[in-house]
Write a structure and sequence with these properties.
The protein is mostly helical. It has one domain. Helices cover 79% and strands 0% of the residues. The protein has four helices and no strands. α3 packs antiparallel against α4. The relative contact order is 0.16.
Length: 117
C-alpha cells in the first residue's frame, strides 16, 4: 500500500512541478504535455482512490474508482473555464478533450488495480 500511495503522490505532483518550473522560467514544456499531465494526474487519482477504498475496507470497483476521478476532472475543467486560466480554454472542445484523457487515465488505472487485486 505504501508503494501505491507514493506512486499516486508522484503521479499527481509531477505535472504541477513541471508547470511551476515553466512559470518560473526554469525550462520549457513540449507541446502536447497537457495531455500527458491530465493522464498522469488521473492515473494518480485512480491509484489514490484504490488506496482509500482498501484502507477503509470498502468495495473496490470500476465505478468507485472512475466516478470520483471524473468528478474531480469535471470540477477542475469548469473551474479553469470560469477563471480563464492562461486563456487555454477558449473552446469547450478542449475541455472535453481533457475530460476524455482524464477518463482514459482513470480507466487504465482501474484496470491495472483490478489486475493487482
Amino acid at each position: 500500500m505504501r508503494k501505491l500511495t507514493l506512486l499516486a503522490v508522484v503521479c499527481i505532483l509531477l505535472p504541477f512541478i513541471a508547470y511551476t518550473g515553466k512559470l518560473l522560467g526554469f525550462w520549457h514544456i513540449l507541446p502536447g504535455f497537457d495531455i500527458l499531465a491530465h493522464f498522469t494526474v488521473s492515473l494518480g487519482l485512480a491509484l489514490g482512490m484504490y488506496v482509500v477504498l482498501k484502507t477503509y475496507k470498502l468495495r473496490v470497483s470500476y465505478l468507485n474508482i472512475i466516478l470520483p476521478v471524473m468528478l474531480i476532472g469535471v470540477g477542475w475543467e469548469i473551474g479553469q473555464m470560469i477563471l480563464g486560466y492562461e486563456k487555454l480554454y477558449i473552446s469547450n472542445a478542449e475541455a472535453l478533450n481533457d475530460l476524455g484523457v482524464d477518463l482514459v487515465g482513470a480507466m487504465i488505472g482501474a484496470e491495472v488495480l483490478r489486475d493487482i487485486q
